[in-house]
Specification:
Shape: globular
Mean pLDDT: 86
Low-confidence stretches: 1-37
Helix content: 55-70%
Number of strands: 0
Largest sheet: none
């Protein structure tokens, strides 16, 4: 806390707390006491090591796997370059205001979202309960994605790549689409119905355990450890993305892929579903509404400039989405030039990463290198988002005396171990 240039909490009366929080607004006399109360209540609260840790952790929370496999698909599906119109409008009217609101609430009130909503009005307690329930559900989602990416990362070192060959000769299903067959039959071992449980996949189970061990190692001291981990987990994906971009745009057919992505179809803007997709992507990608941003903001000093933070996080996140879309579609253009699969012939979500992208990478020189780089990047994107989701579940509990008596390492161990064991229900 001592080396945090923005973190000195005012012990004297401060008539500028709200002004500093908003960046430009003037402090009113009535709000001076409230701001001072927030400082006093948050005086024993955890603090980020410095502003960079907060920024990296917040960007890591916002920038996730959806920027790579969801936004590119939605953009191409909903009018290409024309989709950027509703996407930008929703960022300005929905994303940035909510992002600012959540960061400012946590920073001003200096406590977790459960107590914040209760202190605003008791009837609002349900909002906080709803946020923590959503975060509980999301906690199981990101490790599963990270688990899949780790499994593919491991398989990326094999020669030949396992999604380019069939294990059984004359397997017509596999021969039709090897990457799809590897995803459904080898990785997921999907059954014909939900009533058929199937068997555990040893490799996936091992990856699941490793994922939770890594998560605990990064979170066991709360933001004191996750903030340090963010220096790597939030920055290295950008290094990989730049390398993939340079390689992608130099491939044969890359220009056609990018052209398909950004060619505008303004007629699509008349479809309300396009605007709904844009709003949903902004809401989902910025991680607003889950409570994690409120927790992150509460670990900042009251005097931090939250306006700058909200603008930086919002524009970095959306810029990353567009940049990642160029990377993905340049490779899909290369796939079309090599094996004739149309750029538009792609599934959204996991299908884009685990089927379409793997098929394209298999046609590139040094496919093991580029596959390993891509899936390592996806692992880091998933674990970064997991940091914030778990903090949204554990952070608000630290406002209550019972949990304050328990070391953060113990609370985090209990929480992560519950989800580790719960995962075996999914695999059985």
């Amino acid at each position: 806390m001592d080396d945090y240039p923005y973190s000195e909490l005012a012990n004297q009366s401060s008539g500028q707390d709200i002004e500093d929080c908003q960046g430009t607004a003037n402090q009113s006399p009535d709000s001076e006491g409230t701001a001072k109360d927030g400082e006093e209540e948050g005086s024993g609260r955890e603090r980020w090591g410095n502003w960079v840790e907060f920024l990296l952790a917040s960007v890591g929370l916002a920038v996730g796997t959806g920027n790579v496999w969801r936004f590119p698909y939605l953009a191409q599906k909903n009018g290409g370059g024309a989709f950027l119109v509703p996407y930008t409008i929703m960022l300005l009217v929905e994303g940035l205001p909510l992002l600012y609101l959540e960061l400012a609430l946590g920073q001003k009130m200096q406590k977790g979202f459960l107590k914040i909503w209760t202190s605003i009005r008791k009837e609002f307690t349900g909002i906080g309960v709803g946020q923590i329930l959503v975060s509980f559900n999301m906690t199981a989602y990101f490790p599963m994605v990270m688990c899949w990416c780790m499994y593919y990362f491991y398989n990326s070192f094999k020669d030949p790549l396992p999604w380019t060959v069939c294990k059984v000769a004359n397997d017509t299903c596999c021969a039709a689409d090897k990457a799809k067959h590897f995803w459904y039959e080898d990785t997921l071992q999907a059954t014909s119905s939900i009533n058929e449980a199937g068997e555990m996949v040893g490799g996936i189970v091992a990856c699941w355990i490793i994922c939770w061990v890594l998560t605990y190692m990064c979170l066991f001291k709360g933001i004191q450890s996750s903030g340090k981990a963010a220096y790597f987990t939030a920055t290295f994906p950008y290094l990989v993305l730049v390398c993939l971009f340079i390689r992608g745009v130099t491939l044969e057919g890359a220009g056609n892929g990018v052209k398909v992505l950004f060619t505008p179809d303004f007629q699509k803007l008349l479809d309300p579903n396009v605007w709904m997709d844009a709003a949903g992507q902004i809401f989902y990608s910025l991680s607003v509404g889950f409570g994690a941003l409120i927790c992150f903001g509460s670990y900042n000093p009251v005097k931090n400039n939250v306006t700058t933070d909200a603008l930086l996080i919002g524009f970095i996140n959306c810029g990353t989405s567009v940049f990642a879309a160029i990377v993905v579609y340049s490779v899909l253009g290369f796939r079309e030039s090599k094996i004739g699969i149309a750029v538009k012939d792609v599934e959204g979500g996991p299908g884009l990463a685990f089927i379409a992208y793997t098929t394209a990478v298999a046609q590139m020189p040094l496919p093991q290198l580029w596959a390993a780089a891509f899936f390592f990047m996806m692992m880091l994107l998933a674990i970064d988002s997991e940091f914030g989701t778990i903090e949204a579940c554990i952070g608000p509990l630290q406002d209550y005396p019972f949990f304050q008596r328990i070391r953060k390492e113990v609370t985090t161990f209990w929480y992560t171990s519950q989800y580790l064991l719960q995962g075996f229900l999914y695999f059985s």
